[in-house]
Amino acid sequence: MKIRLGIILTLALFSISSTALVIRYLDGVPALVMAFWRMITASTMLWVFSAFRPKKTLSSEQKKLILFAGFFLGCHFACFFLAVRNTSIANATFLGCMLPVFTVFIEYFQKKNNNKMTYYGLVVALAGAGIIQWEGLSIADENIFGNFIALLGALFIAITFIIAGKVRENTDTVVYGRMLFFVAGITLLFISSLAGDSIFKISSKHIPWIIFLGFVPSILGHNMLNYALKYTSPTSIASLPLGEPILASLFGFLIFNETIPVGAIAGGPIILIGVFLILRHQPLNSD
Fold first, then answer.
1. pLDDT by residue (tens digit) across 29-83?
2. Is the pLDDT of residue 139 over 70?
3. What share of the chain is helix, strand, coil (3-state, %, to 5)?
4. Which segments of the chain are extended strands (E)?
5. Can you spell out the DSSP letters for 31-84?
6. How far is Cα 210 from Cα 23, in angstroms, rounded to an integer?
7. Burial of 261 by CB count in 10 Å (0-12 exposed, 13-18 middle, 19+ buried)?
8. How far apart are CA 149 and CA 121, in angstroms?
């Protein structure tokens, strides 16, 4: 089980990290619109898959929980993009790394105690994330709003993972994912409308990349994390995206010949050590 879960989590991390590469090909597409189509595309793919392999229906209680999870997932995307506009990318990225801090906090109030090594690993991983983003971090007054929104976005995705951990105890991954992404998409549609961004601000050249975002980062990425939540804790899953900046930098070097930042070289191994400590000491639920 550990080996299978490790392979799934590795695939999920690589898939999520591909997002940064694709975004550059969607230049001119508003971020909220991009997120909307990503969620709707992922949901559509899972619904089509379900048509060929019928799944069990959801109970009313499960539907309520997924509605909340989808709403918070949509708000997470909106908060991150809004934060980038109102603070530095480094601030938004680093504060987004607070996700596992929030899951630990929530689990504490749920009386779900984590192993001490989880806390040590979290501190180590966050230190590594701080090193990577150090040069761009700022606490200037003009960044306060953006910093707050970035933290709010981390809280929202933490809540999504906590709910997912509950729902996935007795719900199929595909059934959960298809509704989750659909609700997130509708949430983003509403937010996009408020922001004045038309969902039709895309051209035919963008469609292949939208499909890529819907399948790779969303289904092979986020939905695989949802799968893993049945077998391990939300905190262990929440810690995994901390490795995203490392792989994004590596992909940039291999594909676009970009220079790997010194911070990534120094902080990357520290993050990996921290994430390893977290995952290594998390108990696994049996099949």
1. 888 999 999 999 999 999 999 888 877 788 899 999 999 999 999 999 888 878 7
2. no
3. 80, 0, 20
4. none
5. HHHHHHHHHHHHHHHHHHHHHHS--PPPPHHHHHHHHHHHHHHHHHHHHHHHHH
6. 9
7. middle
8. 26
Looking at this protein, which amino acid is placed at residue 71?
A: F
Give me the residue label for tokens 């806390």. 119
pLDDT digits over 235-273, tens only? 889 888 888 777 877 877 888 787 777 777 888 888 888
Q: Which residue has the tokens 């530095």?
A: 88
- Report yes or no: 39 and 185 within 8 Å, Cβ to Cβ: yes
**Residue written as token pair 């995952």:** 279
Where exactly are the structural domains of the chain?
Answer: 2-280
Q: Which of 35, 132, 31 is nearest to 91 (CA)?
A: 132
Angle at 220 between CA 216 and CA 222, to 5 degrees: 100
Residue bearing tokens 């392999």: 53
Whole-model pTM: value is 0.88
Token pair for 100: 């596992």
Instruction: Give, in order, the Cα–Cα distances in Å from 99 to each of 25, 76, 124, 126, 152.
Output: 28, 11, 15, 10, 10
Least confident of 62-66, 175-179, 279-283: 279-283
